[in-house]
Amino acid sequence: MTELREGDRIRIRKKTDSGVVVYEGIVMPTASRNIVMKLDSGYNIGIHPEDVEIEVVDRLGGVKEGKKEVEREIRTGKKGEEHLPSLSILSTGGTIASKVDYRTGAVSPQFSTEDILEAIPELGTIANIKGKVIYSILSENMRAEYWKKLAAEIYNEIKNGADGIIVTHGTDTMGYTAAALSFMVRTPVPVVLVGSQRSSDRPSSDATMNAICAAKVASSDIAEVVVVMHGSTSDDFCSIHRGTNVRKMHTSARDAFQSINEVPIGKVYYDASDLDKMRFEFCSSYKKRGEHELELRDKLEEKCGLIKFYPGADPAILDFLVGQGYKGIVLEGTGLGHVSAEWVPSVVRAVKQGIPVVMTSQCLYGTVCDRVYDTGRDLLHAGIIEGEDMLPETALVKLMWVLGQTTDMEEVRRLMHEKIAGEIKGRRVREGSLIP
Ligand code: GLU
Fold first, then answer.
1. Domain 304-417 adopts which CATH fold?
2. 248 has catalytic annotation
3. Per the CB 3.0–4.6 Å rule, which of 105, 318, 399, 416 could disulfide with 346?
4. Fold agreement (71-296, 304-417)
5. Which of 98, 143, 167, 171 most suits a substitution to test ligand 1, by most atoms within 8 Å of the C-beta?
6. Which of 88-102, 127-141, 286-300, 412-426 comes out lowest in average pLDDT?
7. Where are the domains of the chain?
8. Please, which residues have CB within 8 angstroms of residue 15's CB and are 6 or more apart in sequence?
């Protein structure tokens, strides 16, 4: 049998009862005796090497090392086309910057910004593009300290004249980063986070359409931190979500991102045949270009925790975080904002120690209101802060940001109830006289 190497493109002919079936794809690493190949559809199959004809169609000439580039600036696009806006693409990794790694068989972030631009040359017709790789990570490895660097890079790019920013990001934690940047950067230009659910080596990849829609939004007059991702299962439009109210709601669907507790800012319709024909449809109001002065407010208290309550959950979980020196805690309670009665003494202790405890709801939709049931009223007496209609993760990121600005408990309480970056939408729940 021909000696196969990982990364070879091969064609296999296999005789079956109904005739010869041909498979073509890339050889993947395997510990088994079978040949494992990634088909062009993106799926992997295993084929027993006996009784098949194998032809090597293309050979990589060795296993490629992943790029180790950390930070580098390049410029591409139509230089000198002054009428085009200047956009900066800041790459952090994720699927949109990934390809199959033939050493491990896994999808890993390897594309530099230059690679993204090579893969999507249309971007150069929309704007003059400057690219910079900030991180090459899968977004589950994102951390609050990385948000600070990212916020500072965005600030610098805008200060140096960028008309819009695109942040390429893994989809898993893109909502957290979008919320963090919404609080940390007051922006006079669009700051657009974009990712893809399916890597660019798959025919159903959403990378190209999402990136093009992101470039259109980054060139528009929406001066907010937003997430731009597929809005339907087809390739017809991307939704523009406000950075504080967006969530990944599906593990793999291309239209996984949804605005929670509000409609998206709008849609950008995709037209692959003529990018100039792409149009916007707006569903709600938004901050316009130049409405804000550029401001960087990047102080964060990173030692904040998020606890999801479940029936029978032990309040020792909260005591543990307090004992570990956590400075603020968000609870993801049930319904209107509840934890069981046995948690109340632990909440009282935390608040007495000066640790703000914020209640959000695992319902995600609706506003927290602890005035209705006994357990809620007890929590209000204990000094809990109602997280209004914020997503739990937005409340967490906001608490980090608020504690970065002040440690005065009353000021923390006031700021958590104040709408700072569109994170509070609905009916304001008053604390009234129940607060001690
Ligand atoms: N888990 C990885 C990440 O969030 C890949 C998922 C993706 O980018 O869609 O970076």
1. Rossmann fold (3.40.50)
2. yes
3. 318
4. yes
5. 171
6. 88-102
7. 9-58, 71-296, 304-417
8. 51
